[in-house]
Amino acid sequence: EDPETAFCTLANREDLNPEEGSIHHCLYQFTHNEKLTETNKLLCDVCTQRHYGPKKDIKSEKKYVYTNAKKQMLISLAPPVLTLHLKRFQQAGFNLRKVNRHIKFPEVIDLAPFCTAKCKNVAAGNTKVLYSLYGVVEHSGTMRSGHYTAYAKMRSMNDRLPDLVLRGQLPPASETEPVKGQWFHISDTHVQAVSASKVLSSQAYLLFYERLL
Predict the structure, then answer these.
(1) What keywords tag this UniProt record (predicted)?
(2) CATH number, domain containing residue 80
(3) Of 122, 128, 161, 169, which residue is the least packed, with the fewest Cβ within 10 Å?
């Protein structure tokens, strides 16, 4: 990667200002720029060879040069279907404890602030990578026992997804609203129609989005 653009994103991250306790904040934290210093320095082959000569001589002498570096996790390929898995547990001493906090998530999410500037599957000039929510998995209970339920959106077929999956073709940049449809709550053999607000208030464990543009 070009060092000048390696840490650039498709849309300006500084304009995001994500709300704490939201999926945007989770993505922002996951993709933030980290500095590797002191005991986290990066082993640099180029620096090592510059100081100690060819690589074949380095292994026998076990001499390595470590340097300060930056690390950032960004999306390099925008997928047709986006699956977000929330970490619903935390370490509490020697035990694991479930996190029951509600994380806000939208019906339409823009991944552009978390994508590389040269993100594949994004048309040149596009500064938005939009996805529409179509499924949520929720877990109730504790780390030892509980029950999984799901919310699914009955909607018209997205004709662009097969083209994206099979041929890598880009969708038209026209739709910015969530895909229209009816939400249902599924718990074992029970299925009930629910509102979008009911879905958005759930304690999501898994989120499923489909590509809009």
Answers:
(1) Hydrolase
(2) 3.90.70.10
(3) 169
